[in-house]
Design brief:
The complex is a heterodimer of chains A (505) and B (86). By secondary structure, chain A is an alpha+beta fold. Chain A is built from 19 helices and ten strands. Chain A has three domains: 4-152, Beta-Lactamase (2-Layer Sandwich), CATH 3.30.450; 177-302, Beta-Lactamase (2-Layer Sandwich); 324-502, Hypothetical protein af1432. The longest helix of chain A has 49 residues, at 128-176. Chain B has a single domain (2-73), classed as Winged helix-like DNA-binding domain superfamily/Winged helix DNA-binding domain (Arc Repressor Mutant, subunit A, Orthogonal Bundle), CATH 1.10.10.10. Chain B has five helices and three strands; from the N terminus they run ααβααββα. Chain B is globular. The two termini of chain B are 17 Å apart. The chains are: A alpha+beta (505), B alpha+beta (86). The A-B interface holds A 160, 163-164, 166-167, 169-171, 173-174, 177-178, 187, 190-191, 193-197, 221, 273, 285 and B 24-30, 33, 36-37, 59, 61, 63-64, 66, 68, 70, 73, 75, 78.
């Protein structure tokens, strides 16, 4: 078998031969020696009978143009010089015709001879000084070409790895910036399919009893609908990968376990786009992606748990508020749905919408500081009582600012009673100076207040409340928000939800 | 699509980017990454990438401020590109 060293020498010789006379150092030498003929050869046989059959011998023969007997003699002289230069690893002169001179010098790399440079048809003999220069020039050219190859090798080895690393980094960024599990798993599947160029990807997570794998996401480029199947741990490729905690690879599938402390699931890829088999390199890349995916899934699960905890706390506070005299059962799901739809229309991101929903559930938290007699009063409020009422956004903001996860909703709570025309409270802010989330909450909270019963008045119908909101457009409310609210509240699904929660139209 | 892509390939940068993704079909990279591989200005690379996304040759996956570009998995488009390149 050919060794790497031999292959490298062959590549180096081919590179030198291809561009030998184009190199500036060689060009300069050619000019100085009055255009001699350069012959580069990789192998020179020891025996003349073999040598004379070589292309090198034929080239020399063509240059000599002498009678056959003399040509044979000259060729033997040349071969002797080449052999001597090989033995001495030094240049060796020879006569290559009438008043024509030749020279042989071995091409060497790391002390190994991999070829010869033969100069023919020199019109004058090379002096010892020029020969020294010649030797250093040839050696430098060989070293330079060798460096070129090294760089080429480095580039062909490092570049694909750098590109793969960059891909892994991009995938990591795309995965880790998603905290919604519903969005994360399809994203992991899509990214894995892209990196592996596979037709299908399935993600299964270990069930609570750790006996089965529950299908969470399957994407198939070839079918619109895909079946989600449970798999017993230990069976089939996904089950085996989870049981062993190691990848399971077949010709057209690759199952990689998702491990973060313990095995949490498996990503299985099927059928490469080009029909080729999954390789050990694919396995290695998928292992790295699966590690990142497992971290992203854990982060999303932790985030979800924290969100659930925050939401439970908020629900708890909201229920406490409902026990107050003016409190009443709120259409929570409809309320949150309206917030979601309006937020989406204003291109708010998931976290901005979530903050607004939290604020929506707690917007009247400050009413906890209002005396019950004021809240339950049926008649008109006195100016001091109105002042107390007007303090509730500020009080609510103060209370909630103590709860760290809710700090970001404080401005929404504080300004949700500001009016578009500047007649609201607590600061009398106008138009765009009021945060958008507070402007949205102002509309939805007013609508919600109108459709629920209060101790001092009966609830309005949904349509009547919608009309009241529209009347306030441009004065109490931001007209754009009112338009978007109208669009949302007229949707069939929202109406159904309202009907379900209120028990009336 | 073929005619439009053929026309776009007169632009050296578009051609370089397409060649990069054609040769590294499993790659997913950002504007910064691709501009390193093709050795060109980020702004121009971003425009060329988005043009290739519009033509359906590349796919764009966005999350927050991260945009990942990758080669299409549409077999028809892949066949067209292969025909043009080879």
């Amino acid at each position: 078998m050919e060794s790497t060293e031999t292959r490298n020498q062959e590549r180096l010789f081919a590179l030198l031969k291809e561009r030998w006379e184009e190199r500036s150092e060689i060009k300069a030498f050619s000019r100085y020696l009055k255009n001699p003929v350069w012959i580069l050869t990789s192998r020179v046989p020891y025996a003349y009978t073999e040598f004379r059959k070589t292309d090198t011998a034929k080239q020399i023969k063509n240059l000599i143009h002498r009678p056959q007997k003399e040509t044979q003699k000259r060729l033997m002289v040349a071969l002797k010089a080449i052999k001597k230069s090989r033995k001495n690893r030094a240049p060796e002169k020879f006569g290559c015709g009438r008043k024509m001179y030749g020279l042989s010098y071995p091409l060497m790399l790391n002390g190994d001879i991999f070829g010869f440079v033969i100069l023919c048809n020199m019109k004058k003999e090379m002096s010892p000084d020029i020969m020294k220069v010649f030797v250093s020039v040839v050696d430098a050219v060989v070293r330079g070409a060798s460096k070129e190859l090294e760089l080429e090798d480095l580039n062909s080895t490092v570049r694909p790895r750098a590109i793969a690393l960059s891909t892994v980094h991009t995938v990591h960024r795309l995965m880790s910036s998603t905290l919604d599990p519903d969005e994360l798993l399809p994203r992991i599947a899509r990214l894995s399919m892209q990196v592996m160029r596979a037709n299908r990807c399935s993600i299964k997570l270990v069930g609570k009893k750790r006996k089965i794998l529950l299908p969470k996401c399957t994407i198939d480029l070839r079918k619109e609908k895909t079946k989600l199947k449970k798999v017993i741990i230990g069976k089939y490729a996904p089950g085996k990968a989870v049981k062993r905690g190691a990848s399971v690879r077949g010709k057209n599938y690759l199952a990689t376990p998702l491990i973060d402390e313990d095995v949490m699931g498996v990503i299985t890829l099927y059928d490469k786009l080009d029909g080729k088999e999954f390789t050990a390199f694919d396995e290695e890349i998928m292992r790295t992606l699966a590690e990142q995916a497992a971290i992203a899934i854990t982060n999303a699960q932790l985030f979800q748990e924290q969100e659930d905890l925050t939401m439970s706390s908020i629900r708890c506070i909201a229920q406490l508020l409902e026990t107050r005299p003016h409190g009443s059962h709120r259409p929570e799901a409809s309320f949150l749905k309206l917030i979601l739809l309006i937020g989406q229309k204003f291109n708010m991101n998931e976290s901005e919408i979530r903050r607004m929903q939290y604020a929506a559930m707690l917007h009247d938290a400050g009413q906890i500081s209002i005396p019950e007699k004021v809240l339950a009063k049926r008649g008109e409020l006195t100016p001091p009582e109105i002042d107390i009422i007007k303090m509730h956004p500020l009080r609510g903001a103060n209370i909630l600012s103590k709860f760290k996860p809710l700090k970001t909703i404080v401005p929404i709570i504080l300004y949700h009673h500001e009016n578009w025309d500047g007649t609201g409270y607590p600061e009398g802010l106008k138009k765009g100076a009021i945060p958008l989330a507070a402007r949205i909450l102002a509309v939805v909270a007013s609508f919600e207040a109108m459709i629920t019963d209060k101790p001092y008045r009966r609830a309005l119908s949904v349509n009547a409340a919608v009309n009241e909101v529209k009347k306030g457009s441009g004065t109490q409310f931001d007209p754009k928000v009112v338009d978007v609210f109208y669009e949302a509240v007229m949707r069939k699904d929202v109406r159904k939800l309202l009907h379900k929660e209120l028990g009336r139209a | 699509m073929k005619a439009k892509l053929k026309k776009k390939l007169n632009d050296d940068l578009v051609k370089d980017i397409l060649m990069f993704f054609y040769e590294h079909q499993a790659s997913i990279d950002t504007v910064g990454g691709v501009s390193t591989w093709v050795g060109s200005d980020r702004g121009k690379v971003e425009d060329a990438l988005d043009e290739l996304v519009r033509l359906g040759v590349l796919e764009k996956d966005s999350m927050g401020s991260t945009n990942g570009y990758c080669y299409t998995r549409d077999k028809k488009v892949m066949k067209i590109v292969r025909g043009l390149i080879e």
